[in-house]
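Dear Dr. V.,

Thank you for agreeing to look over these. As mentioned in my earlier message, I'm a first-year student in the group and I'm still getting used to reading structure tokens, so any feedback on how I've presented them would be very welcome. I ran two proteins. I've put each sequence directly above its structure. The first is here:
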Amino acid sequence: MAGAGPPMKLFDSFADAKTEGEVGAGASGAGGVVHIRIQQRNGRKTLTTVQGLSDDYDKKRIVRALKKQFACNGTVVDHSEYGEVIQLQGDQRNHVCQFLTTVGLVKEDQLKVHGF
């Protein structure tokens, strides 16, 4: 097949968190980084993940507020390696950044946005 190109490589969107050693550090007070990522599901569907929020916060209450604010569905997933990760439907990266800084959960320099 001419022009088929190189085979697609799998991409680990959490790879940089492994190398930086920030997992579980939490964002409040300790200077930890909150990672906001987008993951492609199927077709045009995307998933926004928020990882690195401090364990001091009730993530289920945060998800409830995010769902109400952005009119999307979301959940808290317990990941074996990264702890509790917030998942939201759609590309909500900018909205989540604004929400977290406005509410005062994290500072703007603690946010790290990944994706496209």
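The second protein is here, in the same arrangement:
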Amino acid sequence: MSRLISLYLRKLQCSIRNFDRWLQSIGSGQPPLGGIPALAGVSNLPLQTQPLPDYSSIFDGIFWAVPKRRRSIQRNRTRRRAIEKKIVPVTDIIPCSECGHPKRKEYLCR
């Protein structure tokens, strides 16, 4: 059991290091929070005296609107076959006065 936990912690450390590197590559080159000393041991990095860069804009596209639940087949069919979407039959067809072909009232004949 302890081996499984240590394996999980090593993977977690690796993921956090990769995330830190990614943040460094898009930021000012400084580590964003001075590393994670609780998981990585004692940090060799000096404390930052500069203000941290604003990373709020990098997460703008991550939290897009997504549905919480899958739409049921019944709801999909109801939406697709709504009364507003029914095809209305055309009733204003008349024969052309010149050639005799059927055409709509407001349209010109070919």
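From my reading of the second output: The two ends are 82 Å apart (CA to CA). The longest strand covers residues 93-95. Does that match how you would interpret it?

Kind regards,
E.
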